[in-house]
Amino acid sequence: MRRLSRRKALTLVRELDAFPKVSESYVETSASGGTVSLIAFGAMALLAFFEFFVYRDSWMKYEYEVDKDYSSKLRINIDITAAMKCQHVGADILDLAETMITSNGLQYEPVIFDLTPQQRRWQRTLLLIQNRLREEHALQEVLYKSLLKGGPTALPPREYASIEPLNACRVHGHVYVNKVAGNLHVTVGKPIHHPQGHAHIAAFVSHDTYNFSHRIDHLSFGEEIPGIINPLDGTEKITYNHNQMFQYFLTVVPTRLNTYKISADTHQFSVTERERVINHAAGSHGVSGIFIKYDTSSLMVTVSEQHMPLWQFLACFMGLLASFLTLFAVASNLESTEERRCSYTTR
């Protein structure tokens, strides 16, 4: 009895047709019906193909919250080349309350200021990317998702030894500071630390040697992550005045980055630039040098890479499949109706 009931059930399933059609003797193929069917099949296949790529793609989700971590240290990564000899310049960082002066972790390396053709191409490419990032903000998400895969963002070394004199000083390294506003400056003379503040010994440096033309190959906050391009990377300023002051005002935003490739705590920052000639007689007071003033934001941004859930993709796919079957049935019924009308006319 069970076998008979199973056979009856299978027979009913086979005979079941949700889209009943006329007898095949009344149906003949036509160009219009075939065209409608091909268009319907092609549209459904194309939609399914695009839906699969949407499922494979991901997007970045931004969440904002108050940064409650005030006790940790802030890491600053520096790579700046000034067009002066190393014995004539000094770099240090002074915080807002002037309670901490540090230059530990910074190295002074005599180098040639002019770039080789290969290095110049690298810098132009980097500046081109910087301009595109300012115009197309969505490119930043592409960089986030391609971290650790892109090309190196550091200045490539010189491909050959040069006989030119070492006329510049590369200040590079990293330092840890408190998470308060501060000032990183590269100016004339070596820094001196004393209880009343700080000073730079510049009495033995000739004024004619002052030249603060510089290049910022890299400046970032937090962990160094390969592939991230910061706003000041590749910046180059040339001056022919001995009393030139360059100022950069930075607003640093703590950023927690979570992607499928990396999870790290880094920092984004915006920058405003200003430069002027120091002329005390004209009322333009100050000190020649490179000054980078930064301030940390009280907000923290969490950037997370999101992906379409599998159930949502399956639901969309099943919806497309249902639409495909519906269009197929409609096309078949249209073809059958047309042929049946022709048979009635013949009669």
Give the tags:
8-stranded mixed sheet; alpha+beta; single chain; 347 residues; 5 helices; 15 strands
Describe the structure in brief:
By secondary structure, the chain is of the alpha+beta class. The protein has helices spanning 2-15, 31-56, 117-135, 139-145, 310-346, and strands at 58-66, 73-82, 89-95, 101-102, 106-111, 168-178, 182-188, 190-194, 197-201, 214-221, 235-237, 244-258, 263-277, 289-296, 299-307.
Describe this structure in words.
With 347 residues, the chain is of the alpha+beta class. It has one domain. A hairpin with a 2-residue loop joins strand 8 (190-194) and strand 9. It has helices at 2-15, 31-56, 117-135, 139-145, 310-346, and strands spanning 58-66, 73-82, 89-95, 101-102, 106-111, 168-178, 182-188, 190-194, 197-201, 214-221, 235-237, 244-258, 263-277, 289-296, 299-307. Helix content is 30%, strand content 35%. The strands form three sheets. Strands 1, 3, 4, 7, 12, 13, 14 and 15 form an eight-stranded mixed beta sheet that branches. The chain has a five-stranded antiparallel beta sheet with strand order 5-6-2-10-11, with no helix packed on it.
In terms of topology, how is this protein built?
Layout: H1 2-15, H2 31-56, E1 58-66, E2 73-82, E3 89-95, E4 101-102, E5 106-111, H3 117-135, H4 139-145, E6 168-178, E7 182-188, E8 190-194, E9 197-201, E10 214-221, E11 235-237, E12 244-258, E13 263-277, E14 289-296, E15 299-307, H5 310-346
